[in-house]
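Figure S7 source data.
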Amino acid sequence: MSATTTAASDKTKSYIPLAGGASDGWSKEDEATATCFCGAVQLAFPTQGPGFIDSFICNCTDCRKITASMFASNFVVADTHLTHIRGELKTFAQSRTIASGGLMTNYFCPNCGTLMYRRGSGFPGHSIMRIGTVDDFNLHETKLFPRVEQFTKDRVSWFKGVEGVRQVEGSAYSSKKTPSSSKV
Ligand SMILES: [Zn+2]
Ligand SMILES: [Zn+2]
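Tokens for the predicted zinc ion complex:
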């Protein structure tokens, strides 16, 4: 019997509910798709190393504004392992709200506006993707489960954070190898 809710789904299998214009998302052992809301843009990304780098929650003010929500749920992949299956992306770049002063480029679906990923000048060769764009909802709770929650100092008061996840007041990434000293 197939599951009809995220909570009831068998976490050892794929769970791809109708959540946008496309219904051709997929999930394999080491790779899965991320699709925009209208379905025009679809990407394939690695769900494990070496292409899969990290997964994190960010409460910073920049993330709150760009997601139109209270926090961003992100994961980082190496660009060498990111495949553009279809769709052109529109970009918008600025550095004003980035703590490091580095340029952050945002890649959107020009049709529906879904933010698919961001690329920071302080973190070359990597894309910061969005967990919510991933078609297999079970991955949100398994392989993409956040490993750290950062900028807790900017967290909205009614959200108490992700239980059992390392909490960092500011940026969790200070070395140059990680998603930058910037807010991401
Ligand atoms: Zn779209
Ligand atoms: Zn952020």
